[in-house]
Specification:
- The protein has a domain of 128 residues: Aminopeptidase (3-Layer(aba) Sandwich).
- Helix content is 26%, strand content 30%.
- The protein has 6 helices and 9 strands; from the N terminus they run αβββαααβββαβαββ.
- The protein has a 9-stranded mixed β-sheet, with helices on both faces.
- Helix 2 packs across helix 4.
- The longest helix has 15 residues.
């Protein structure tokens, strides 16, 4: 998943373009376009708009359709193993979260009907260690426009809001774009014990 720039939109509706990427401190600034009762409307670098909101129990079908559009490589990068489909019980569980211990943010494409899920970011809190595991997934056709960066930064923000000590996750070594993104956000990488080809990345908060 190769992440690119997602920038704060200007005051006008037109998107500004630059031949050089902005510094990392600006790259991950919140790209809020407008706030609405059911989340935030954000605009990617290519001008497309999505609604960023928390996952809802009614998102089960959209979550399964999103999974169905993933390539085997994308599935392996997200779940770290092969899966032919997302079973209904698992989709139900992923759509019904405990907000005290979990965060799940989705990027919804409302230009189609029914609305489609284009990205998901999750946080799982471990109360015993005051830390949280994260995961980020963006549909292939929506990569390279900064959505992964947006989701990860929001998860970091949420972990800080919760007062956690650190945030961590497992990333396949082959997933270089994700590893580069985490590096730019200040994550530290080390080999995951007992999991060849996998890195454990963490960020002290």
């Amino acid at each position: 998943m190769n992440q690119a720039i997602l920038r704060n939109p200007p005051c006008s509706d037109a998107m500004s373009h630059s031949t050089l990427p902005p510094p990392s401190r600006e790259r991950y600034a919140r790209p809020l376009l407008r706030s609405e009762p059911q989340g935030e409307v954000v605009r990617a670098q290519d001008g497309r708009e999505l609604r960023l909101r928390g996952i809802e129990p009614g998102d089960v079908a959209a979550l399964q359709r999103c999974f169905g559009r993933l390539s085997p490589q994308e599935v392996r990068r997200r779940f770290l193993h092969a899966m032919a489909e997302l079973p209904a019980p698992m989709a139900q569980r992923l759509s019904h979260i405990d907000p005290a211990l979990e965060t799940a943010l989705v990027l919804m494409d409302e230009t189609v009907r029914p609305a489609e899920m284009r990205g998901v970011g999750r946080l799982y809190v471990d109360e015993t260690t005051d830390s949280a595991e994260f995961s980020v997934l963006v549909e292939q056709d929506w990569t390279r426009i900064g959505l992964g960066a947006l989701l990860l930064q929001r998860l970091v923000d949420d972990a800080r809001r919760r007062g956690l000590n650190d945030i961590w996750g497992h990333v396949l070594m082959e997933n270089r774009p994700m590893l580069q993104l985490c590096k730019e956000l200040g994550f530290v990488r080390r080999p995951a014990q007992g999991e060849p080809g996998t890195a454990l990345i963490s960020l002290k908060l």
